[in-house]
């Protein structure tokens, strides 16, 4: 078999894969050939032509912008978490310094609306929870309405439930004249089931199904522990 001449090899077309492979193996070839490098252009989406360096710079700027946005998002989340931690600290201190059941209920409701940007806050206790005074009057779940059967699984699961609820459930928990877009139902329990701490918002996006619930769960545990002692002593 005769050898292929240099002229024949030069006449064979070079495909795109070969070009890419060569450039990968010789990344400095364009820098060594400034004439070729300067003439090299890549079509832009707008139809104009830009140099390879300009195109690379554009890609780097886009990547940097995406990274900056991600970092800004993480910083915002960190600041929000730090703010929540500060709120929890203040709430814990106030709970420790509050000895009356009525004051605890009023203080928690006020703190939740002020610091957690919640439109409506209310306690709902199971019918079997009783105290000698009438402090809990109006705060019990109506056993005859069937609402107890609806919310008992939430309390027993020991996890906050967020999202949009049925209108009947909202009316039983928050009142018939209040329109709730989304809510967070926080179980109250200790050695026994106590009830719910209900947070309601007019916005359907305030308490979404995908939101994190670790702070809500910690809030429920904190309030439950304080209520447990007061309910036993009342």
Shape: elongated
**Beta-strand level of the residues, as a percent range?**
5-15%
| CATH fold-level assignment of the domain at 98-233 | Beta-Lactamase
Give the CATH class of the domain at 98-233.
Answer: Alpha Beta
CATH superfamily of the domain at 98-233: GAF domain
| Low-pLDDT stretches | none
Integer average pLDDT:
83
The SSE string, one letter per element, is HHHHEEHHEHEHEEH
* C-alpha end-to-end distance: 106 Å
Polypeptide structure, described:
The protein has 234 residues and is an alpha+beta fold. The protein has a domain at 98-233: Beta-Lactamase (2-Layer Sandwich), CATH 3.30.450. The chain is built from nine helices and six strands; from the N terminus they run H-H-H-H-E-E-H-H-E-H-E-H-E-E-H. The protein has helices at residues 6-11, 16-25, 29-32, 34-39, 52-96, 101-115, 147-157, 167-174, 214-233, and strands at residues 41-43, 49-51, 120-125, 161-163, 182-189, 193-201. A four-stranded antiparallel β-sheet has the order 3-6-5-4, sandwiched between helices. It has a two-stranded antiparallel ribbon with strand order 1-2. A hairpin with a 3-residue loop joins strand 5 (182-189) and strand 6. The N and C termini lie far apart (106 Å).
Layout of strands and helices, then pairs:
Elements: H1 6-11, H2 16-25, H3 29-32, H4 34-39, E1 41-43, E2 49-51, H5 52-96, H6 101-115, E3 120-125, H7 147-157, E4 161-163, H8 167-174, E5 182-189, E6 193-201, H9 214-233
Antiparallel strand pairs: 1-2, 3-6, 4-5, 5-6
Helix pairs in contact: 5-6, 5-9
